[in-house]
Specification:
2 copies of one chain form a homodimer. Chain A has 303 residues and is mainly α. Chain A has one domain: Farnesyl Diphosphate Synthase (Orthogonal Bundle), CATH 1.10.600.10. Helix content of chain A is 69%, strand content 1%. Chain A contains 13 helices and 2 strands. Chain A has a two-stranded antiparallel ribbon with strand order 1-2. In chain A, helix 1 packs across helix 4, helix 8 crosses helix 9 and helix 9 packs antiparallel against helix 12. The first copy, chain A, is globular. The first copy, chain A, starts with 12 loop residues before the first helix and ends with a helix. Chains A and B meet through helix 6 and helix 7 of A and helix 6 and helix 7 of B.
């Protein structure tokens, strides 16, 4: 695995290129009838930060002998799950979003029925890829490792849906920090943790303390990512619309700044950042250079 | 595994009782927030013939030393996938069905968003159950066997969606027998085959000729099931509504009787029945007593 440390502009850009190619290769491996094939392609290739695959690669970089194929399959699988969730989230019965990243959402481009089915098949395709020999150049990975990856992915995928429900239930209500944390831990945190853990199980035994350390790391950055998102919403609103944090709080939106105030939210993001770095301190600095870079980027990003 | 041979009235009824209990146990193993929990329960417990679990059990009965827990998990997992597909099929953007088995469909009872999420989570729950230790009383099943089950389920789940698309594409068109067969092989056949094969891999090595024989059997009954469905549609229509096969053909509905005529369709169902029984001839009669019973029932059923 090459490192991301030499990318000064954007630590995700190399991972973005790698995953882009692997996603295309993976999509080509499936025989899907039209128009579903185009809809699936659309849902997957819309782009995005590709944070989850980047976390897979960076975790695998802890140990140079990580099975590259198993990690690449995990990265594709987790991105398939993420893209399925976006296609379903955008549907009229959910968020009814017409645009995503400047392009028509899947149901706008292909109709609701096809967008629904695109999300459905992307979920099973994720498990197919994980259990396949795609990208293999050497012997097959042990079945017990692939099985662990599947268990991690399935559990995270279910948690993600639970998080969606908790989020829908919280709409228009004022929830406390524990409830907010519960939403995000499930809705986005579970898949971010899974990205790290699906790579981790390819290099560490289940009893290795590295696994709980990486879980701790992933949980902290997953939550920090969300807190930072909430903070950026306000920052960019202030710059662009002249809205203030105080106004956001007045409309009773359940965000971290609304809940605890902007400064306290910024302090909390920093605290989670420290938690993440403390968990990584278990490893040699050079082993976690990529994970450190991504962490730094995620928490200092401006958009 | 007890046999179904002593059930003279309905060879599926014992399997129905067994799966009912196991589905409830499996559902209880998940922490799902309301209203999703109730929606998932509704989608799963609406009932139905439970043909797929029955095929799992009957296949496992070929060998008395089949791992009972692995077979029970497979039966639950495949029924979860089937129920997810029904919940999504019933949605307004698909078939827009309001009633299923005399009860309100999932989206009528819980709203479209929750029904969508119920289907989504049932798919990942299927993989969670398959990779769990639920029902285990002895040592864990080999990881390689569980992995095979997951691969079979993931592939079948994708094929099912492809079949849906092919079916949507064929709406209002006159398709030939090959196209019709392609629709059904994917839409319903894949999951029926998976039910048989997920049990088969718990008792036979991948190289055992029993596996292709059982695949052949499953493909034949999967298709026969559909041909019989098409025939029954006409028969029950004739009795209930006075519609004739001739009229059905005139509206250009793509069914086997419409395509080849009622008598030829009946002959085709019988031929597929023979194909299925020929595949089972590889085994001792006593080993496949349950599979034979189910086959007989599926092809002589009146509803």
């Amino acid at each position: 695995m090459s490192t991301l440390t030499d990318i000064s502009v954007h630590p995700l850009s190399e991972a973005q290129q790698r995953i882009q190619q692997d996603l295309l290769t993976a999509l080509d491996a499936f025989a899907i009838p039209e128009p579903l094939k185009s809809a699936v392609h659309h849902a997957v290739m819309l782009g995005g930060k590709r944070v989850r695959p980047a976390l897979c690669y960076a975790t695998a970089a802890i140990q140079p002998n990580a099975n590259a194929a198993a990690v690449r399959r995990a990265a594709v699988a987790i991105e398939f799950i993420h893209c399925y969730s976006l296609a379903h989230d955008d549907l009229p019965c959910m968020d009814n979003d017409l645009l995503r990243r400047g392009q028509p959402t899947c149901h706008v481009a292909y109709g609701e029925d096809t967008a629904l089915l695109a999300g459905d098949i992307l979920q099973s395709m994720a498990f197919e890829i994980l259990g396949s020999r795609l990208f293999d150049q050497g012997p097959a990975v042990e079945a017990s490792i692939v099985l662990k990856q599947m268990q991690i992915l399935a559990t995270a995928s279910s948690k993600m849906v639970n998080g969606q429900v908790l989020d829908l239930q919280a709409e228009g209500k004022h929830v406390d920090q524990q409830a907010l944390e519960n939403i995000h831990t499930n809705k986005t945190g579970a898949l971010i943790s899974a990205a790290v853990l699906m790579a981790a199980v390819t290099i560490f035994e289940g009893t290795d303390i590295a696994i709980p350390k990486l879980r701790e790391f992933a949980q902290a950055i997953g939550l920090a990512f969300q807190v930072q998102d909430d903070i950026l919403d306000i920052t960019s609103d202030t710059a662009m619309l002249g809205k203030t944090a105080g106004k956001d709080q007045q409309v009773d939106k359940s965000t971290y700044p609304a809940l605890m105030g902007l400064e306290a939210a910024q302090a909390y993001a920093l605290e989670l950042h420290h938690q993440a770095m403390n968990a990584l301190a278990h490893f040699d600095e050079s082993q976690v250079a990529e994970l450190t870079n991504i962490t730094q980027f995620l928490l200092t990003r401006k958009a």
